[in-house]
From TrEMBL:
The keyword Signal applies. Gene3D superfamilies: Periplasmic binding protein-like II. SUPFAM superfamilies: Periplasmic binding protein-like II. This is Putrescine-binding periplasmic protein. Residues 1-21 form the signal peptide. PANTHER family: SPERMIDINE/PUTRESCINE-BINDING PERIPLASMIC PROTEIN, SPERMIDINE_PUTRESCINE-BINDING PERIPLASMIC PROTEIN. Keywords: Periplasm, Signal, Transport. It is found in: Periplasm. Pfam families: SBP_bac_8. It comes from Siminovitchia terrae (Bacillus terrae). Its main location: periplasm.
Length: 351
């Protein structure tokens, strides 16, 4: 979990001032209920600018787009009080937390007829069993990517990354659950772990791996891999696929150990000032041709079954995950009070 300090507090205050200028008061109530505006809070490199432009042109709604680099950063901002965000895109286990704390608006499904395009396998999740607060966006897994042109060692799993060949040449996700989870997987422990002893053990392993880690990167981990500054990395599946597009020497490896699966969903934060605009945008994104455009730019798993039908064979292959890997992996879940332990260990690792 990211260590949140002065930088995050500053960003929160800046966002608050910016969105206040957009017509939102401190309580989150919009000064103009029919204002042609939409404030989106999303991961970086996760929504093509072309999609935003098409939505703006068609609807006349101005989109203000702000990014975050971790679920923790997103959660911290939403927890600080409504800053005027109309849409956020958290991962399921953070949606569990947001729902428990009554931080989400119920979605009016009548305003989203394109829900019919979704694959039922991705709805009714553990985070939102009745689909009251969420709409699936994209999903994927944590994988290993290796530049086989400069790596001599054969890599089959996370444990191979401890080899001295990788000294100061690994890029890791800015994600405590994924990074510590990889260490838990090596030991054969559950990834959604609440056992203090096992988590501490995984933390010590991650500290031992640190000499091999060049960078923790939540925004553009593929960059170091593409340029050859990093020999290998643990990253999200589409990041690895995009790296391979730019550098054919990149090999994507589905670890022999268990790994994290994840799904990101649209949510509407409590007190969103432009709720109907948010629902209009979600419906727009669920159009098969728009969802297809998103997957072509960012080849994560797509829960829009009608969009997948429109994708080329090459893109579908980039998005695919082997069945045996899927079956031995786990969706990240909320670990309750144990989150504090993950946070402490992560802080120690990053020092």
């Amino acid at each position: 979990m990211r260590k949140l300090g002065i930088l995050t507090i500053t960003l929160v205050l800046m966002a608050s001032l910016f969105l206040s200028a957009c017509g939102t008061n401190s309580s989150g109530a919009d000064s103009k209920s029919n204002e042609k505006m939409l404030n989106i809070f999303n991961w970086s490199e996760y929504l093509p600018e072309s999609v935003i432009q098409k939505f703006e042109k068609e609807t006349g709604i101005k989109v203000n787009y702000t990014t975050f680099s971790s679920n923790e950063e997103m959660y911290a901002k939403l927890s600080s009080g409504n800053l005027g965000y109309d849409i956020a895109v958290p991962t399921l286990f953070f949606i569990e937390m947001l729902a428990k704390e009554d931080m989400l608006e119920k979605i009016n499904k009548d305003n989203i007829p394109n829900l019919k395009n979704l694959d039922p396998d991705f709805t009714g999740t553990f985070a939102d069993p009745n689909d009251e607060f969420t709409v699936p966006y994209l999903w994927g897994a944590v994988v290993i990517a290796v530049n086989k042109e400069i790596v001599k060692k054969g890599v089959k799993g996370y444990d191979d990354l401890f080899d001295p060949e990788f000294k100061n040449s690994l890029v890791m996700p800015e994600d405590n659950r994924a990074s510590i989870g990889a260490m838990l997987a090596i030991k054969g422990y559950p990834i959604n772990n609440t056992d203090e002893k096992q988590i501490e053990e995984a933390g010590e392993m991650l500290k031992k791996l640190k000499p091999n880690i060049k960078a923790f990167d939540g925004d553009n981990p593929k960059g170091l891999l593409i340029t050859g500054e990093a020999k290998a990395g643990i990253m999200y599946s589409a990041e690895a696929a995009l790296a391979k597009r730019e550098n054919p020497n990149i090999e994507i490896i589905f670890p022999k150990e268990a790994s994290f699966l994840w799904q990101d969903n649209f949510v509407i934060p409590k007190g969103a000032p432009h709720k109907e605009n948010a629902e209009k945008f979600i419906d727009f994104v669920l159009r098969p041709e728009i969802s297809k455009e998103i997957s072509e730019a960012y080849p994560y798993g797509n829960p829009n079954k009608e969009a997948v039908k429109l994708l080329s064979k090459e893109i579908q292959e980039e998005m695919s995950i082997p069945k045996d890997f899927f079956e031995r992996s786990e969706y990240a879940r909320d670990v309750g009070e144990t989150t504090v332990l993950y946070d402490r260990i992560w802080t120690e690792v990053k020092q």
